[in-house]
Amino acid sequence: MKTECENGGRILQDFKKMTIFARRLLAISFLMSISQSTMTTAYPVLMKQFGVQTSTVQWLTTGFMVAMTLVMPLSPWLLDNVPLKKLLNSIVGIFILGTIVAMVAPSFGWIILGRLIEGLAVGALFPVFQSLILESSSQEDRGLAMGVVGLVMGSALAVGPIISGVILQFVSWRALFGLFIVLLIILIVRIQTVIKVIHPLAPHKFDWLSAVLLIGFGGLLYAINLFPTVGLQLAWWILLLISLGLLVIFAWRQQKLARPFLNLRVLHFPGYAAALLLTGISYSGLIIATVILPLYYQQVFKVSPFWSGLLLVPAAYILSRLNPLAGKLLNHLGLKRLIWIGMTLIAAGFLLLGTIGTSWLWWSVLGGILLESGNAFTMMPALTAANNALPKELMSHGTALITTMRQLIGAASVVVASSLITCFAASMSYAHALLMTSRWLLLFPALGFLLSLVLKTSKIK
Predict the structure, then answer these.
(1) Where are the transmembrane segments (predicted)?
(2) With respect to CATH, is domain 17-204+259-452 assigned 3.40.190.290?
(3) What is the pLDDT of residue 333?
(4) Is 41 left (phi over 0), alpha (psi -120 to 50) or beta?
(5) Where are the domains of the chain?
(6) Of residues 414 and 144, more confidently modeled
(7) Pair 18, 145: CB distance under 8 Å
(8) What is the crossing angle of helices 59-71 and 215-230, to 10°?
């Protein structure tokens, strides 16, 4: 009990070390992060009320992610050209607008429109707030700061379905959107007096061609999400090739601009590219856990959706405890050792789920805890190390590229997991299909181990 209290006190102390502005910015980011994963629990309710199919209702999440990905690469330009107070107020205002549209929606199409608007705001906020936290921290304190950021991001993703499950148990789905509106208005009012200018303005021209070419990111993410539904049809290949073509032109365009939208020179710094991929792999472990664990609970052990959401709490709780610890250990152990710890935990989680995960409910719960624990030791330490490899003026570009690629890798990993389950379930029981899928997913931590061998970053001195 004493140790538990001491751990809680240390996390609180770490949080208090941050400026008031950083703490309130994290609170806004936490609330908007929750919106990523809240809708999945509401799918059955919305399908029944509006008479839509599963493929249609999934657009509440797919559309949100596509909108996020379109805006993320714009964040360096926004930080350079828009005063911070105006930028934050605009982001939160756009999110509230989208939430209002979704809350009062008379038809399902209006809910999708609201979610698209929300996604644009969240896509702008994520790289912006992480860049601000990194730029305002000394190199020695970045591990700790990003550990707290990891606590916020990871916990939000994990608790989103839990919160929505509890709300839907007692009130209408519209109340879920109403809760976001009320809390965000309170938070944005409170942050006004403490907004601190961290990133100096460096105005330069908005390149409209680059902005149009960013459609390639959204198209690629849409193609990834569309694959399980349509397969390798000609239309899918056309969408994929057009999206990749736009991205190739976008990359070429950035090399020619004196002030690029997204400075791809960050990829030339030793250790950055490997760390970028490691954050994506780690995020994959986290997002796969939120997808595959409810299938274990509901399809194998016949647990209700409400209790299925509550069974995700232990893993989310452990994740919140370990993120600040991992941030501190980055300074002492260095990135490679943390990656080894994280990938070992992720591998142990998939191995447990792939061997005895269907024999006892609590084995699957433990598997989820191991997956999310591994994320704590990998994602934010890798993000910190990647940005430590960059000069300060490129940190916003480095963060924007990582957050964008993390979304793409995460979406691809969910498609891989879902496709494996569907493939195996066609010839065996659903429980056995989940076991086989978890075994194949061991390739993710295996790739993580290989990437750690080429890391050039060392522990912070």
Answers:
(1) 25-46, 58-79, 91-113, 119-137, 144-167, 173-194, 206-228, 234-252, 273-297, 303-319, 339-363, 369-387, 408-431, 437-455
(2) no
(3) 80
(4) alpha
(5) 17-204+259-452, 205-258
(6) 414
(7) yes
(8) 150
